[in-house]
Amino acid sequence: MRTNILEYLEEQETKRPLKKAFFDGDDSYTFSEFSHAARSVGSALLKEGTKKPVLILMDKSIRQLIVAFGAVYSNNPYVILDPDMPVKRMEDVIKRTNPDVLITDGTKDDIKDKLSFEKKHLPYSQAVGFKEDTQGLRQVRLRSFDTDPVYICFTSGSTGAPKGVCVNHRSIIDYMEHLSLVMGFSDESIFGNQTPFHVDASMKEVYGSVFNGGEVHIIPKEHFLMPSGVLDFLNEHKINTICWVASALSLVSSLGGLESNPPRYLHTISSGSEVFPTKHYNAWRTVLPNARFFNLYGPTEGTGVCCYHEIKGLLDENDKIPIGRPFKNAKVFLLDENGKIPSKGKEGEIIIGGTGVTMGYYGEAKKTQKSFTQNPLHDDYIDIVYHTGDIAYEDFDGNLVFSSRKDHQIKHMGHRIELGEIEHAANNIPDVFESCALYVKEKIVLFYSGNIEKKELTVELKKYLPKYMLPNSMIIADRLPKLSNGKPDRKKMEEIYLTKKARRKR
């Protein structure tokens, strides 16, 4: 029985030492090279006496992964900072994790110099060049457990502050074993990675390779600005497996090129993080009739994916693609407003349990207790479940079908976003009186009142929010519509936005 993700890496190092495992355009590493580099970083962290989360700040690259696995070798969780997030948000992450070391590689020194981080800065070149401490790493492994945290992944928070989901070895092993079995990952899998490594969706490729002996090619971000570049990349590198967010798949199919330049080697495709529009699935299916397509579902708090649905054939445009059934060993059920399991066809909140449920929010005991609770269906023994806030129903084939969000959390451009965080950022700007963020027809719309023009407000919001959270449209009003109880009248604001949009089209 395996209790540590490093056992999988070391198995590949033994079985396939010379096989190329990771490619990023500038460099490539075999399993042996990657493992040795990670152990060097782990040894450097042991020398530093690190006992807290390890912060990683650099461009997306193999180096990020080497440092991440090096942190695991030292038995410290890693936290990969998104270089595109505002400095204020980075400092919030630093405050919540209280790290004592930040590893950089020179690519983001301009950002590093803006941070008020006063503890150890460890250059990547120094860490990766450190002499491997075999005995020290062995002693660390002997003292490690499958419940030790591997990484902390920060998600959007409704109070304006991100929440760090803490994930351990046991949950990752359970997740990857079942995902690999369902999707057929093997040592012949050649992954085309799209998602950043600070997002847990990238686990499918990274750990898919480590667990199964496959290889990962990191697709340059600029290729997604011109889908023909993506398709050329897939063919040039003989990519046969992609696990992308639905918006990335939709981008490629919407801008054309699939029919004239189909990805010839691709046989396994999964979408996730948001609803995959049927018309875009059909576009991919038409050019890849023999490929396997999967729709995956699961929150970060559940270690990625807990449900899957293999999509067969072309679909009617009105069909909804189900999120499917739970993986083996994943507990997934619905609860209605009365705390009861609804009948088929009736909606309820998705509740997940089992080994995949994570350790909660790092350093946030109260928030953890609110979302991670005792199973409300019984009190016979401790049985922690996570309340996703996602609303779904079970169809008559036994598949779960996503309906909406219980709160105002959304999935936009592959990212999970709390609308409350956008409001919090806007309300922090002095000349904004009040604000309300909506999500209408896949657009983020910000209503606000105040003495600031839209262009100036956008400039200010960029100081607090990453690009993918910036409003697509803004509407300024003397005062925001309110319900009788004083809360924002979101329905009224949506009607105002849609009316204005319709008038502009005339």
Which terms would index this structure?
globular
Terminal CA distance reads 65 Å
* Rounded mean pLDDT score: 92
Helical stretch count?
A: 16
What structural class is derived from the secondary structure elements?
A: alpha/beta
How many strands appear in the DSSP assignment? Answer: 25
Instruction: State Rg.
Output: 23 Å
Q: What profile does the largest beta sheet have? A: 5 strands, mixed
Overview of this structure, please?
Helix content is 32%, strand content 25%. Helix 2 crosses helix 3, helix 8 packs across helix 9 and helix 11 packs across helix 12. Strand 7 and strand 8 form a beta hairpin. A 5-stranded mixed sheet has the order 11-12-13-14-15. Strands 16, 17, 18, 19 and 20 form a 5-stranded antiparallel sheet that branches. The model has no long low-confidence stretch (mean pLDDT 92). It has 16 helices and 25 strands. With 506 residues, it is α/β, with parallel strands linked by helices.
Topology, pairings included?
Elements: H1 6-15, E1 20-23, E2 28-30, H2 31-48, E3 54-57, H3 62-73, E4 78-80, H4 87-97, E5 101-104, H5 109-112, E6 120-123, H6 124-128, H7 134-142, E7 149-155, E8 163-168, H8 169-183, E9 190-193, H9 203-212, E10 215-218, H10 227-236, E11 241-245, H11 246-254, E12 268-272, H12 278-287, E13 292-297, E14 307-311, E15 325-326, E16 330-335, E17 347-354, H13 365-371, E18 372-374, E19 384-394, E20 400-405, E21 409-412, E22 415-418, H14 419-427, E23 432-440, E24 443-450, H15 454-461, E25 473-476, H16 490-505
Parallel strand pairs: 1-10, 3-4, 3-5, 5-6, 9-10, 11-12, 12-13, 24-25
Antiparallel strand pairs: 1-2, 7-8, 13-14, 14-15, 16-17, 17-19, 18-19, 19-20, 21-22, 23-24
